[in-house]
Amino acid sequence: MIFAVPMVVIMHILLYFLMILLHKSKIVKIEGVADYIKVKKKDLGSLTRGEKNVLIAFLITVFLWVFPGFIAILGGIDSVIAKWYGNHIPEAAAAVFGASLLFFFPVNWKEREFTISWKEAVKLD
User: Fold this and answer.
1) What percentage of the chain exceeds 90 in pLDDT?
2) Are 51 and 116 in contact (CB under 8 A)?
3) Rounded distance, CA 54 to CA 98, Å?
4) Which of 3, 9, 52, 93 is deepest in the core (most CB within 10 A)?
5) Residue 82 neighbours by CB distance under 10 Å
6) In this structure, are residues 61 and 98 in contact, taking their beta carbons and an 8 Å threshold?
7) Minimal CA–CA distance to 93: which of 52, 66, 120, 61?
């Protein structure tokens, strides 16, 4: 990393200026962009219950993926918690758990409608 990180930083800076030099923009400012974005954002409305459910499931999944790194930083790789977590909750299990949450988070509880149904799930890649 002592060699590669400075090299990557230097290359990114050079690439940035090279891209600006080779691909100069003829448009300096686009009028009305801020108003257009405000209108489009207003048209989207607030998050639906399903979108909130997906966001929660995604955040839980990311937490389960990132948590072992925090354990390793705070307690060390050889700590009891890090070893237990690594043995019992692999990354693949965290992904499956996060995806499974979508089958249990309700969109409309009275009609027993959940974030995703099996018919919708089998159509996904």
Assistant:
1) 47
2) no
3) 9
4) 52
5) 20
6) yes
7) 61
